[in-house]
Amino acid sequence: MYKAIIFDLDNTLLDYSFSELDSMKRTVRDHNLFVDEDTMWEAFWESFTKHNFRHWMDFTNKRGSHKSIEEVLISSFRDSINLSPSQHELLTNTYWNYFCNTCYFEDGAQEVLHSLGSQYKLGIISNGISVAQKKRLTAGNVYELFHSIVVSDEVGVGKPRKEIFDISLRELGLSNREVLFIGDSLAYDYQGAKNADVDFCFYNRTDERMTDEHNPKFTIRKLQDLIRVLSTPLIP
Fold first, then answer.
1. Is 218 helix (H, G, I), strand (E, B) or coil?
2. What angle do CA 201, 204, 206 make, to 5 degrees?
3. What is the pLDDT of residue 236?
4. Which domains does the chain have, with CATH numbers?
5. Which residues, listed in sequence order, are joined to residue 105 by a DSSP beta bridge?
6. Which keywords has UniProt assigned to this entry (predicted)?
7. Phi, psi (5° rounding) for residue 122?
8. 46 pLDDT band (50/70/90 cuts)?
9. CB 5, CB 182: distance < 8 Å
């Protein structure tokens, strides 16, 4: 039925939450911050994630003054910890280097990619920073498995807009009826697939409760279940 399987990247194939946390822990360790002070670390991390989300949303929605991801991170550090501007820049460089050059997979992701890659074209549609997404896939030795990698900052449009799916379909040389899209977000992935009239598989990794307005083609809780779903004939 399908000729290609397209994946969201963060928290679908790659464990973004752990990547972010691990990169920051390595950063503060390298710069000797919060040594043996768990309470200060927890307060900093709570503050950083709040400010970073705000700056990231301003950046992606083109509302703020940030022109680069580095500016987003510098502003997030500035609002979270009282250090000099040069120290905020050093923290940003360390953190971004760790984040871009390490790859932590969701459970079962490698197995699923190698299994499906022999039967389908593989693609990625991601709201993110292209250089980071491609470096992380390279670090995980899976970059070459994909026939198409479409990242929002590179193409100027993101999920849930239909246009980013159109770009992926053009690169794959397929129609919207020939692909299945897998993602973990109802707001961006499900709605984006719906806007593009593409079948959607909801990777419900956090056991999120759906409302009556959500009607994905498939729902899985483990990535390995995708292999079973694709091998089960659909009943007309």
1. strand
2. 165
3. 47
4. 4-15+103-231 (3.40.50.1000), 17-100 (1.10.150)
5. 14
6. Hydrolase
7. -115, 140
8. very high
9. yes
**Among 49-63, 76-90, 117-131, 195-209, which stretch is predicted with the lowest mean pLDDT?**
49-63
Separation between Cα atoms, residue 134 and residue 209, nearest integer Å:
32
Q: What span, in angstroms and rounded, lies between the C-alpha atoms of 188 and 162?
A: 11
Would the pTM of this model clear 0.70, i.e. be above it? Answer: yes
Do 150 and 32 form a contact (C-beta atoms < 8 A)? Answer: no
* Site of tokens 């897998």: 182
213 SS3 class? coil
Q: Which long-range contacts (CB under 8 A, 24 or more apart) does 39-45 make?
A: 44/80, 44/81, 45/21
Look up residue 169 and give its two tokens: 């379909």
Residues whose CB falls within 8 Å of the CB of residue 124, separated by 6 or more in sequence, listed in order: 6, 7, 8, 9, 13, 133, 137, 146, 148, 149, 150, 151
